[in-house]
């Protein structure tokens, strides 16, 4: 049975309106961030162009139904892995195809600008994970502890390949996003809590132990694991930024000053006084906090809550497991990005260089989000025809 509704009835207008609101917030915040004169480029116009490309990507992704993406999952995953391998093997240079920024070799240089493959790999990874979990449940219809361990093994293999290359760049922020997506999908996949609780508890214990060792056993980590003193600086500057105000703690201090000075109602549009480096990208939330205050920052956070609520509500209506897992992975990806980015600007979490979705300036980040949101639009657009379609995906 096919969907006989017209385009207007099948298109997700609510999601489109939410994205439009993010566009408005992004352009306002970026235009104000440019008043510092740190860069000569007009990032507002470039971000507007990025959003035009965003819309084109979404329109292209909507054209294909979820069945097609299920068949393409491993091809896209493989394509993303190839890009990560090329980043690892091609030497970085100023004029070459691979460029290095702030010690991370994470970008390709192209005629249209730099491209970060890990941003696209996040969506490719979600598709592959959704395929793995849905196919596993089709094979092991009756769940057991043994089948759950088999599933975790498949998930681990799917994760470790891209994670290894991303850690080699190194890109801690993107690595944490992959771990967050994996953790969410493990829970949604219905893995027994008899397995999840010990695994998650062990992960927390290991993370806590490493943090304690970084604070009180630096010499041991340097001698046994070859870690360098500068690698601990990010942790120290997070916990006590004022002791590192002239170095690694500078970004956090200026971020706290900017957001705190906005108070309740903010200073007003273009009335910023605190200089924050890279305020148009990773620290865009400081602009929002300073100019629009607690009220404006709360509005932006509520806008993200509205987006997550809408995506969750849509996910609960989907009948196909593959679509459900894809949406769950996208929700986890966006949620972690928001939590980490805002958290790092207010000292809740360490600074990791993760952009604020749909608001921070950045072509790769926005294009990666376009792929993810495009999948959601596709599932809504093709929902009824897909709901009654044949489940024979292997023909």
UniProtKB/TrEMBL annotation:
Primary location group: membrane
Membrane topology label: Multi-pass membrane protein
Domain of life: Bacteria
One Gene Ontology term of the molecular function aspect: lipid-linked peptidoglycan transporter activity
Residues passing through the membrane, by range: 43-62, 74-92, 112-133, 145-166, 172-189, 196-217, 292-310, 322-339, 359-377
Cell location: Membrane
Keywords: Cell shape, Membrane, Transmembrane, Transmembrane helix
InterPro entries in the record: FtsW/RodA (IPR001182)
GO annotations of cellular component type: cell division site; plasma membrane
Protein name per its UniProtKB record: Rod shape determining protein RodA
GO biological process, any: regulation of cell shape
């Amino acid at each position: 049975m096919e969907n006989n509704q017209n385009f207007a009835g099948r298109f997700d207008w609510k999601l489109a309106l939410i994205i439009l609101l993010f566009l408005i917030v992004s352009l306002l915040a970026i235009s104000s961030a440019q008043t510092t004169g740190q860069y000569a480029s007009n990032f507002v116009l470039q971000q507007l162009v990025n959003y035009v490309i965003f819309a084109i990507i979404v329109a292209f992704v909507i054209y294909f139904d979820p069945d097609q993406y299920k068949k393409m999952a491993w091809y896209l995953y493989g394509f993303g892995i190839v890009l990560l391998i090329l980043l690892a093997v091609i030497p970085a240079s100023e004029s070459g195809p691979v460029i290095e920024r702030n010690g991370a070799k994470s970008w390709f240089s192209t005629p249209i600008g730099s491209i970060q493959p890990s941003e696209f790999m996040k969506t490719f990874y979600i598709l592959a994970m959704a395929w793995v979990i849905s196919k596993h449940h089709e094979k092991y219809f009756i769940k057991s502890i043994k089948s759950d361990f088999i599933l975790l093994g498949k998930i681990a293999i799917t994760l470790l390949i891209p994670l290894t290359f991303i850690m080699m760049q190194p890109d801690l922020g993107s690595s944490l996003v992959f771990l967050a997506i994996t953790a969410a999908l493990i829970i949604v996949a219905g893995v027994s809590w008899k397995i999840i609780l010990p695994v998650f508890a062990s992960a927390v214990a290991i993370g806590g132990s490493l943090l304690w060792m970084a604070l009180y056993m630096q010499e041991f980590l340097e001698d046994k694991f070859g870690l360098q003193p500068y690698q601990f600086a990010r942790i120290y500057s997070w916990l006590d930024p004022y002791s590192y105000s002239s170095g690694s703690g500078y970004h956090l201090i200026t971020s706290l000053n900017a957001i705190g000075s906005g108070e309740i109602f903010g200073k007003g549009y273009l009335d910023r006084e605190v200089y924050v480096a890279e305020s148009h990208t990773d620290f865009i939330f400081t602009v929002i906090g300073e100019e629009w205050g607690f009220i404006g920052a709360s509005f932006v956070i509520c806008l993200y809550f509205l987006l997550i609520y809408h995506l969750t509500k849509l996910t609960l209506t989907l009948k196909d497991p593959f679509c459900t897992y894809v949406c769950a992975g996208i929700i986890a990806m966006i949620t972690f990005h928001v939590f980490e980015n805002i958290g790092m600007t207010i000292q809740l979490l360490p600074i990791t260089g993760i952009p604020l979705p749909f608001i921070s300036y950045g072509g790769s980040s926005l294009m990666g989000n376009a792929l993810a949101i495009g999948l959601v639009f596709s599932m809504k657009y093709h929902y009824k025809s897909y709901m009654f379609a044949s489940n024979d995906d292997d023909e």
